[in-house]
Design brief:
This protein starts with 10 loop residues before the first helix and ends with a helix. The protein has 149 residues and is α+β, with helices and mostly antiparallel strands. Helices cover 46% and strands 11% of the residues. The chain has one domain: 60s Ribosomal Protein L30, Chain: A, CATH 3.30.1330. The protein is globular and about 40 Å long. The chain contains 7 helices and 4 strands; from the N terminus they run H-H-H-E-H-E-H-E-H-E-H. The chain has a 4-stranded mixed beta sheet with strand order 1-4-2-3, sandwiched between helices.
Length: 149
């Protein structure tokens, strides 16, 4: 007789999660990995470095979005205090830029090859990562559709 063990729950991720973090990839671990892979590819690709295809940090991303930059915005859901990123979802919806929340800003910083945690990343579209970029954007649209339903 095998008893089913309850799945381990990381209570710290739920405890420190921002209450406005929707849509979040935490329920879909494969999607979270795809998002981190996209960020890592945007950092490591040689053409991306020259085009500055990745912007990190609340200040730089906010400035770029206000100036009209397009791309995909990834936010860490464990930002504390969350007031520092509370303006981002509204600003991104007005600019019609897709965005998604990932469970950990530490993991987001690691994916961006940074020693520090990163709260917000803007990945710009460019030819070397276009297929991955489109897949992640489609998955975000699907996630938004599930959240609205």
């Amino acid at each position: 007789m095998t008893e089913e063990q309850p799945a381990e729950v990381d209570y710290d991720r739920f405890l420190y999660r921002c209450p406005i973090a929707t849509p979040i990839t935490a329920d879909k671990p494969k999607m979270t990995k795809k998002v981190y892979a996209l960020v890592r590819k945007a950092v490591t690709t040689e053409g991306a470095k020259k085009k500055k295809a990745l912007l990190k940090g609340i200040k730089d991303v906010t400035k770029a979005v206000r100036k009209g930059a397009k791309g995909l915005v990834i936010l860490g859901a464990d930002v504390s205090p969350y007031d520092v990123v509370s303006h981002m979802p509204v600003m991104l919806e007005e600019a019609q830029i897709p965005f998604v929340w990932v469970p950990s800003r530490q993991d987001l910083g690691t994916a961006a090859m940074s020693k520090r945690a990163t709260s917000v990343i803007l990945v710009k579209r460019f030819t070397e990562i276009e297929s991955n970029f489109d897949k992640v954007c489609a998955a975000i649209e699907e996630l938004n559709g599930e959240a609205a339903a």
